[in-house]
Amino acid sequence: MSEVEMIRVDGAAIKAQCEAILVGWGMDAETATVTAEVLLDCDLRGIDTHGISLLALYAGWIRGDGFSLAAKPEIERDGPSYGLINAHGGLGFAVSVQAVEMAVKKARATGIAAVGVRNSHHFGAAGYYARLAGRAGLVGLVATSTKVVCLVPPGASKPVLGTNPLAYAVPRKDAEPIVFDMATSTAAGNKVRMHHLKSLPVPEGWVVDGQGQPVTDPHEAYKLVYEPGEGGLTPLGASPHLGSHKGYGLALLVHFLGGALTGGTFAGSVNGREGKPEGDNIGHFFIAIDPEVFRGVDAFLADVEDVSETLKSTPSVDPNRPVMLPGDLEERVRGERLKDGVPLAPALVKQLSAIADELGVPFQLIDKNAAVN
Amino acid sequence: MSEVEMIRVDGAAIKAQCEAILVGWGMDAETATVTAEVLLDCDLRGIDTHGISLLALYAGWIRGDGFSLAAKPEIERDGPSYGLINAHGGLGFAVSVQAVEMAVKKARATGIAAVGVRNSHHFGAAGYYARLAGRAGLVGLVATSTKVVCLVPPGASKPVLGTNPLAYAVPRKDAEPIVFDMATSTAAGNKVRMHHLKSLPVPEGWVVDGQGQPVTDPHEAYKLVYEPGEGGLTPLGASPHLGSHKGYGLALLVHFLGGALTGGTFAGSVNGREGKPEGDNIGHFFIAIDPEVFRGVDAFLADVEDVSETLKSTPSVDPNRPVMLPGDLEERVRGERLKDGVPLAPALVKQLSAIADELGVPFQLIDKNAAVN
C-alpha cells in the first residue's frame, strides 16, 4: 500500500517513548503518563497525525513563548454545573482529561455540566475527551479554539478561522461509545500536505485562492494553506451551492464555545490580543450530559442501539463496504494495531530518535518484526 | 425577480391570520399567540418555508393520529440543570418556547442547563428558540428529531435519517444575537422541490440515487427525495471526498440529542416504534449556557464583538458582497419586510383563504398595496 516500508512498533514502546521525551522536556511523570496515553490512543486508532508524530511538531513549538510543560493547572471557577481551569501555558492533554472528568462528575449531580480550559496549548484529538465522557455513561461534547489561521469564510479572500474541531461521544450498552471527531473545514490541512508531497491533484473544493476560486494544483494549494496571505481551506460544504456557509457557521460555534466562553485567543483577530495571556492561549470546552436524568439511562441506551442496528442493517451501495457509525473504522484499526503494532514512517522514527538523543533519554521505537527475527 | 406577482401582507395581519386558524383548529388563544409569533418571525426574516406557509402543510397533518392541538404540556422531570416536558401530541412551538425559557432560568442558577421535549410535533425554525436564549444573554443550542426520512448516509443506498436541524445563538453587546440554523443535509428538501417546479437542474451533490450516484435531473431528484424507496438527500459535505461523513455524524448528533435523550421516535428505525407514543413523537433539546459563570459576561461579549469586527472587516472576493455573520441576511430582510410587508404567493394565500373559510374564521391576508389604493 505505502511507498515506504513502515516500522512496526508496539503500543507499549510508543507510550514509553512519549513519556520519556515529555519528561525530558520538563513535564512531571504523572502528566506525561496521561499525555502519552492520549497520543498512543490516536496511534492505535490510525489517527496518525495526532499520535506520537505530534512530538516532532511540538519539538519546534516548545521553544516559543508561553509554552510551559511544567505548568500546573489551576481551577479558577467551580460551580454547580460549571468550571474553568487555567492551564497556565501547559500542553492541553492532561488538563483536558481533568476538565472532562470534572464535567462528568458535575453532570452526574445536576444533569448537565460544562468545564472550560484557558491558556492551554494543543490537546491532540478532541474525540479522545468525548470518549472519556462516553465511557462514563454520559454524552460528551468537545470544542476547542485553534492557533493556526487557515479557513476562508464564504465570500472572503483570506483566512480568518482555524480548522476548529468539534467532537462528541454517545455511550452504548456493552460496547465502546460512538465517537465522532471532525474539523469544520472540508479537508484537514494535513491532507493537502500529503497531496503536495505526492504531487497528486487536490480534489476541487478543498482549497480556494484569493478570488474564491477552487485550486486543484497540489503545490499551489499547499502554499495557499500553509503560507500567510490570501486563500486557504474551505469550510465544510466546500462551495456556496453545497452549503459552505454551514461549515462556516459550525466553525464559529466551535470558536464561541472553545474560545469566547473560556477566554481563549481569537487567532485571526484584527484587534490584536490585548488582555490575553502570552503564547497560544488555546481554549477548550467540554460538556457532559447525563442521559439518566432525562428519561433513564436504559431507555436511552436502548434507543442508541436502535439507531446503531438500523444504520448497520441499511443496504449499502457496495456490499463489501457496509454502512458504518462514527468511530467504527478507528475501533477496527485499534484491534489490528494492538496485535500487529503501530506502523511508523522511518523519517518520523529518525526525528524522534534525534529528539531522544538530544534530551539524553532512551530511544525505544524498536521495529517489532526486526526484534522477533 | 419572481415569475408571479406576490401579495404584500403586513406582519400584524399574518400574525392575526395564524392565530385565527390555530384557534379554529382547537388551540387555546395563548398558545396560538405564541405559535403565531414564531411563524411571523420566520416570514419577516425571509424564511418563507417556516412561516405562515406551514399552516397549509399542517392542514393535512392535523387530521392524522396523535396530533392534539388542544394539548397542555406537562413537566415530567425538573432538576437543578435539566428538565423534560411531555408535549402530549401538541404542536412544538409554544412548548419549545416554554422549554428554552426553563433552560435559561436554570442556566442562570447553575451555569448550564438542558431541557428536552418529547411527544411533540413540528416546531418550525430551530433558530427562533436559540435566539430566545441569545436575547436573554445566554448561548443557546437547539436540536430536534424529525419525522421525514430522506437523508442517505455515506455508502448507503436508502435514506435513514432526516434533515435533522441544529441551531445556536450567541448574545451580543447592544445588538441582536448571532443566530445560526442549519439542516444537516447539503440542501433542504424544499430546495429540490423548487428546482423541480422550475425544471432547473439540481446542483451535483444535493441528491444521490440508490447506487450513490449524484442526480441532477430535477424531476428524478424530486422523486428520490419525496417518494419512498432508494436515494435521497446527501449529508452536508455532499460526497465522500468533500466530507459527507461529517454531515452524517452531525445528523446523528442532532438525533441523539433531540431524539434519543428525550425519547423522541427514530423515524427510520428498522425495529418499529414499540413503547413510543402514537403520532410523530418528535423530540426537541435545548441547551442554555451562561457566559457570566465562565469568565464574566462583559469579557465574553467583548470577544464576540472582536470576532464580529474581524469577520466584517475581512476583505471579500466581491466588494459588493461583504463577509457576513450567520443571521445577518435574515436581520436585513426583517427590516425591509417590517416596512414593506411580507410577500406571499397567491397560491398560498388562496390555500389559507380556503382553510379560513372552512373553519369559519375571518380571512385577513389583505394585499397591503391594494388596500392603499
Give a quick set of tags describing it.
homodimer; 373 residues; 7-stranded mixed beta sheet; two-stranded antiparallel sheet; 13 helices; globular
Brief write-up:
Chain A is an alpha+beta fold. The first copy, chain A, has helices at residues 11-24, 29-44, 53-61, 92-110, 126-135, 189-198, 218-226, 244-260, 291-295, 297-312, 328-340, 346-359, 368-372; strands spanning 7-9, 74-78, 82-86, 112-120, 139-144, 166-172, 175-182, 207-208, 232-233, 282-289, 342-344.
Structural class of chain A: alpha+beta
Multimeric status of the protein: homodimer
- Show the largest interface: A-B, 90 and 90 residues
Q: Strand tally of chain A, please? A: 11
Number of helices of chain A: 13
Order of helices and strands of chain A: EHHHEEHEHEEEHEHEHEHHHEHH
Biggest sheet details of chain A: 7 strands, mixed
Strand coverage percent of chain A: 15-25%
How much helical structure, as a percent, in the residues of chain A?
A: 40-55%
Radius of gyration of chain A: 21 Å
Uncertain spans of chain A? none
* Terminal residue distance of chain A: 23 Å
Shape of chain A: globular
Write out the strand line-up for the largest beta sheet of chain A, numbering strands in chain order: 2-3-4-10-5-6-7
pLDDT averaged over residues of chain A: 95
